[in-house]
Design brief:
- With about 140 residues, the chain is an alpha+beta fold.
- It has one domain: LytTr DNA-binding domain (OB fold (Dihydrolipoamide Acetyltransferase, E2P)), CATH 2.40.50.1020.
- The protein is about 20% helix and about 35% strand.
- It has helices at about 25-35, 80-90, 135-145; strands spanning about 40-45, 50, 55-65, 65-70, 75-80, 95-100, 100-105, 110-115, 120-125, 130.
- Strand 1 (about 40-45) and strand 2 form a beta hairpin.
- The two termini are about 25 Å apart.
- One of its GO terms (molecular function) is phosphorelay response regulator activity.
Amino acid sequence: MKITVQHCDTDENEIILKCKSIDEEILHILGFLKSRTQKICAWQEKHKLEFLSPEDILYAESVDEKMFLYCENAIYQTTFNLGELEASYEDVGFCRISKSMVVNLHHISSLRSCAAGRIEAKIKNEEKVIVSRHYAPILRQRLGL
């Protein structure tokens, strides 16, 4: 693949993809670009909506049919479910690690093997989350291990 960057005097950045056909590589690039520009609607208080960038989210957890987004210094709630987060933001590092949790791979600082094929992942904010044995092979594959 050939990559060319041109600097020009415009008000808005523009990305043009030229391809012979839309293959898996182009679809991956389009998914990545789309997910980087989308914001996730969330709230801390009922009447105050905020729009979060996916890269600001450390991990997401479903508790009692509510979805919580954990950021560096705050916890938010959203209407997204785990499947939607995983599918929409897989290209920017979101990965399912259990039935109730999705983690942003870019915020994992270390991994440690645990009993029964599970993995303990330490997040950059020093929290530890457990990767279930069902999702451990997927995590390893996504990290290239």
